Amino acid sequence: MQPVTPNWRTSSHTETQNCVELADSDPNKVIIRDTKARSRGTVTVPRDTWTIFIQHAKRT
Fold this sequence. Notes:
Elements: E1 8-9, E2 20-23, E3 29-34, E4 43-46, H1 47-59
Antiparallel strand pairs: 1-2, 2-3, 3-4
């Protein structure tokens, strides 16, 4: 299986570069990075975990 090339994007609600970017083009994981420090690495989480996080964030 070939690796999926990340499709990086920011929130449409972002008006500055002070945010995070995410790549959710892989069906199994979501990759997150700091917009201002892209070279400092990424955080990768399983898609199910990301979905739970987003659902929780929308409720609060």
